[in-house]
Amino acid sequence: MTSSQHTAEYLLIQALAREGITGTPDSTASNPYVRIDVGDGAAIWVSGTGWHENETEYPPTEHDGWLACHYPDPENDTGDFTVIHNGSGTTDFAVDTAAVVAAIRPYLPAADH
């Protein structure tokens, strides 16, 4: 079992925090993700792709890409979302994490970036 401080989820949340962005572990049924609330009730959900599709608590050395989706109304999930980052196949954890953080930034309220 991987220590929570050494999971992709933990390191993503730390990378977001360094940029002043709050990421929170969350899940639906059996699909964990990191949630970033972006105002007006909207949120971005980030989870792994590839070998770790719909996972977040895996070793970063096994990273196979982040998938980030913007949900305008995540509490009423009707399938209405926009993919804002698809790093599928990106095994460089640091590079993909920087890319997903950059993809999230434009969705934040103006005061947050």
Describe what you observe in this structure.
- This protein is of the alpha+beta class.
- Strand 1 and strand 2 form a beta hairpin.
- Helix 1 (8-18) crosses helix 2.
- It has helices at 8-18, 93-104, and strands at 24-28, 31-39, 42-48, 66-71, 82-86.
- The chain is globular.
- The longest helix is centred in the C-terminal third of the chain and has 12 residues, at 93-104.
- The chain contains two helices and five strands, in the order αβββββα.
- It has a five-stranded antiparallel β-sheet, covered by helices on one side.
Structural features:
about 110 residues; alpha+beta; five-stranded antiparallel sheet; 2 helices; globular
What is this structure, in a nutshell?
With 113 residues, the protein is of the alpha+beta class. The protein is built from 2 helices and 5 strands. Helix 1 crosses helix 2.
